[in-house]
Batch of 2 targets.
Target 1
Amino acid sequence: MLCITCKTGKTKKGKSVITLQKSGAIFVIKNVPAQVCRQCREAYFSSEITAKIQDFATKLTGLGIETAVINFEKIAD
Ligand SMILES: [Zn+2]
């Protein structure tokens, strides 16, 4: 797909990092599959992956965890 941010770069399959803030908690999720722009490195994530990360963050905040670095490959089925 064509990058929405720079409008000139094309994206390719890759991995990226998401920083998620949720009710005062901050989580960093590494190795998240994404479409990454070859030019500006902007990353695009599928709604399925975003939902999975949101669910996981909700679980963690429910346990009282306020910060964590998560390897997506370990939580993905
Ligand atoms: Zn771009």
Target 2
Amino acid sequence: MDHTDDYFGEHIAATYDDPASEMFQSDAIDPAVAFLAELAGAGRALELGIGTGRIALPLAARGVPVHGIDLSRAMVERLRAKPGGETIGVSIGDFATTEVDGTFSLAYLVFNTIMNLTTQEAQVACFRNVAAHLAPGGVFVIEVMVPELRKLPPGQNAVPFHVGASRLGFDTYDVATQSMSSHHVKIVDGHGEYTEIPFRYVWPAELDLMAQLAGLRPRERWEGWAREPFTSESGRHVSVWEKPAD
Ligand SMILES: C[S@@+](CC[C@H](N)C(=O)[O-])C[C@H]1O[C@@H](n2cnc3c(N)ncnc32)[C@H](O)[C@@H]1O
């Protein structure tokens, strides 16, 4: 079993679609889908790490043909079980290397999922794989956090992102290697269940360089899907690179 299958296996897939979570609110989904639909135009879209179809299903409902890549059969089974899920083709494999038939006007990788590739080599391979699947003039969109190193005083390596009676969450950073882990503790009846997911954090400028290595050029960078300006205080970014038309 691949590691990502471990991290997004049955135990995560069973509770991934949480209607109460911020990422499942229409405020989070609708602007992303509108942004992606506009960029896809009349072409096809490729979602890397399609998961349970949080973004792919509403995008397909707007008339954009979507194909997905994902390593986790458990996540994809949830997509399949939803209305419209049967219309979306999914290739099971690693999105850094998996080849899919045809070309796309849009490829996208949201919700910090580029960081699931835990080496620089794999992240570079992902850009190259995307570039090979884009039609001339096609675009690649990434939504990812800005690494929170400014929250780390010397000697500290953990940044809490949720502290509550039923859930604790914190990220740990290793600034020497750019490796990072998200730690989650779910508390039920006073007992905690612990999960850790490894990541490789990556800077906007480093992503630009990966794009350049893959023959893509920068087109847009925003703080969010509603095209809010990206500034030195932004905690995340939505970046778009394009494959030259010539
Ligand atoms: C955080 S979920 C995001 C799912 C969906 N894109 C969304 O926005 O809800 C990350 C997804 O990426 C998949 N994934 C992570 N690394 C992957 C890899 N290297 N190749 C293929 N899929 C991967 C996981 O199995 C999981 O379904």
